[in-house]
Amino acid sequence: MPQDSFMDRFEAAGVIRRGHFMRTSGRHTDVYVQCARLFEHSQQAEEVCRTLAERFRQSGAQLVMGAAIGGLLPGYEVARALGLPFIYCERKDGAMTLRRGFAIPPGAKVLIIEDEVTTGASVREMMEIVRALGGETVGVGCLVDKSFGKVPIDVPYEHLVSIQVLSHREGQCPLCAQGLALDRV
C-alpha cells in the first residue's frame, strides 16, 4: 500500500492531525501524531501492522522488541504477524531497560518496532541493549517517521508514513502569529 493510502487512513483514524498544537514539552507544532488512535480498531491495526511486518519477512528476525508505551501494540502486532516472540523495554530511572524477566539470547536477531520515530534516540537505546546482550538488530520499523526520512539508523529501516513535523518555541511560532487557535494535546 503506498504512503498516500496510509496517510489517508491515519488521518481518518485521528492518528495524524493538522492544526496548531502545544506539545507536552511546551513547543508548538502544526502536526500532532497519536498512533494509539490506530489501535481503537483492532482489525485496522492488525492490517496496518501486518503490512509493516511483511517488509521484514526476509530479515531473519527471531524476536521483536518494542518500547513501552508507544511501541507495545505495534510491536506485538508485528510479532504476531511474523509468528515471533515479543519483548519490550521500559524506562527505569531514566534509562531504557529490559525488565519483567525479558531476555535477548546471545546471537538473537532482533527486529525493533516503534509507533513513531522523531530523532531515533529511543531506537538507538534499544539497539544498544540488543548489542550489549549479544544480539543483533536486523531492522527497525515504525508506523510514522516524523523526521521525514532524516533519522540516522544504520540497519534496514521501514516506515509506513513519513512526515516532517516542525516545532517552535512559544513566542516564535508562526501559527501563533497567524492567530490560529491553539489545541493543547
Question: What this model shows, in words?
Answer:
- The chain has 185 residues and is of the alpha/beta class.
- The chain is 27% helix and 31% strand.
- It contains five helices and ten strands; from the N terminus they run H-E-E-H-E-H-E-E-E-H-E-E-E-H-E.
- It has helices at residues 3-12, 42-54, 72-82, 121-132, 174-177, and strands at 16-22, 28-33, 63-67, 86-92, 95-98, 109-117, 136-145, 157-162, 167-168, 183-184.
- The strands form two sheets. A six-stranded mixed beta sheet has the order 5-4-3-6-7-8, sandwiched between helices. It has a four-stranded mixed beta sheet with strand order 9-2-1-10.
- The longest helix has 13 residues, at 42-54.
- It is globular, with a radius of gyration of 17 Å.
Helix content: 25-40%
* Integer average pLDDT: 93
Total count of strands? 10
Round the Cα radius of gyration to an integer and report it: 17 Å
What is the string of helix and strand elements?
Answer: HEEHEHEEEHEEEHE
Tell me the strand percentage band. 25-35%
Annotation field: number of helices:
5
- Uncertain stretches of 5 or more adjacent residues: none
What summary fits the major beta sheet?
6 strands, mixed
Shape: globular
Cα end-to-end separation: 30 Å
What spatial order of strands do you see in the largest sheet? 5-4-3-6-7-8
* SS-based class: alpha/beta
